[in-house]
Amino acid sequence: MILIVDDTPENLISLKKVLEKHDFEVDTAASGEEALKKVLKNSYVLIILDVQMPGMDGFEVAEAISGYSKAKETAIIFLSAANTAFKFIAKGYSSGGLDYITKPVDMNILLLKVKTFYRIYEQNRKLNEMQNSLIAEIETRKEAERKKDEFISIASHELKTPLTSVKGYVQLLERSVNKGDTETVKKHLAKAQVQLEKLNVLIADLLDISKIESGKIKFNLQYFSIDHLVDNLIEVMYQSNPEFKINRIGFANCDVYGDEMRLEQVVINFLTNAIKYSPGTNEINVKVDVKDDQLYLSVKDFGIGLSPEQQQNVFEKFYRVEETSQRFPGLGIGLYISSEIITRHGGRVGLKSEYGNGSEFYFMIPTNLKIEA
Ligand code: ADP
């Protein structure tokens, strides 16, 4: 928008008319004081400023404006009787530009100058926009890089822990075998196997991440019984965590079309998290329901819970709650993978949680959606 400042009403009206005819948006002020008030309130690309006005003259107005951060980019064209006065203009005015036109105003020259200032303003605006989006892009990339570095260090540590245990058990096994102690050999073998399974899961998760990133995750789709899947998993989880009572609430009573192994992976992730993040508790509820061809499956624990801010981030790649990350092992990718699997089944994941009072993670998928494998 352009602001015209002139104490002569005829000048204001005629300038306004010409500029509006050329599609410029125009505002007017009849004195320096009024102009300052308007500059504080509105944003102007250009101010056309009469130099000779009673009260504050044009130069004083320009000098005052030079102090407003809001008008930093605003250009000024002075309308003065004699151009010699131009050199006296506001000290240190660092605006979008300064120019002058002598009176009587030649409208063609004024229009030319106005158009030039507008073009410069547009170019500046675009450059600023570009600069801001580049700065934002650099920040995003830096953050992603930082998260990746952090992830690599956590992943190496997580892989090393079971590997070191396996190495230890193999040494113990060697000794027990030499002694011919079959019972101890069996015990060590079982323990080594648990650690190897941990390694297996970690490596599978890492491979899944790279498959998701490259869009190469494949689904093997068929109808299967979700009720069987849930029963089996509750049984398996109970075997390795007998201290937990896993209650089953509800049945689907129908087959679901999807990738059984991938959906099993999601439920396992919810269940292992429910156990891991609930020390000192011993109960978990698994709820299954089908309504309007939508399967709803949730896993509710009574553990540490999550604050609203943490809840917003849990499905993000590499996210782990900072205050508990030392206490519980993990890579921060299980829920991200789960959410990708559910999205690819045409569904959505979510959670209800209260800090300190447990969480309920759930997913919903259509029971018979024919998705692309
Ligand atoms: P991981 O458990 O390996 O860190 P996940 O992607 O499965 O990775 O979970 C991401 C983060 O979400 C966890 O680090 C944890 O902070 C939080 N979280 C997940 N499940 C629960 C839960 N049931 N209760 C509390 N916090 C949870």
Would you list the SSEs in sequence order as H and E? EHEHEHEEHHEHEEHEEHHEE
Strand order of the largest sheet: 2-1-3-4-5
Uncertain parts: none
CATH topology of the largest domain: Heat Shock Protein 90
Helical residue percent? 40-55%
What's the helix count?
A: 9
Task: Please tell me the overall pLDDT.
Answer: 91
Taken as a percent bin, the fraction of beta residues is 15-25%
From the alpha carbons, calculate the radius of gyration and give it in angstroms. 35 Å
Total discrete domains: 3
Q: Cofactors and ligands present?
A: adenosine-5'-diphosphate
CATH superfamily of the largest domain: Histidine kinase-like ATPase, C-terminal domain
Question: What class do helices, strands and sheet pairing give?
Answer: alpha/beta
CATH class annotation of the largest domain: Alpha Beta
- Overall geometry: elongated
Identify the CATH architecture of the largest domain: 2-Layer Sandwich
Query: Distance between termini?
Result: 55 Å
Number of strands: 12
| Biggest sheet details | 5 strands, parallel
Topology:
Elements: E1 2-5, H1 9-21, E2 26-29, H2 32-41, E3 46-50, H3 58-65, E4 75-80, E5 97-102, H4 107-179, H5 182-213, E6 222-225, H6 226-240, E7 245-249, E8 255-258, H7 260-276, E9 283-291, E10 294-300, H8 308-313, H9 334-344, E11 348-353, E12 359-366
Parallel strand pairs: 1-2, 1-3, 3-4, 4-5, 7-9
Antiparallel strand pairs: 6-8, 9-10, 10-12, 11-12
Helix pairs in contact: 2-3, 4-5, 6-7, 7-9
Bound molecules: adenosine-5'-diphosphate (ADP).
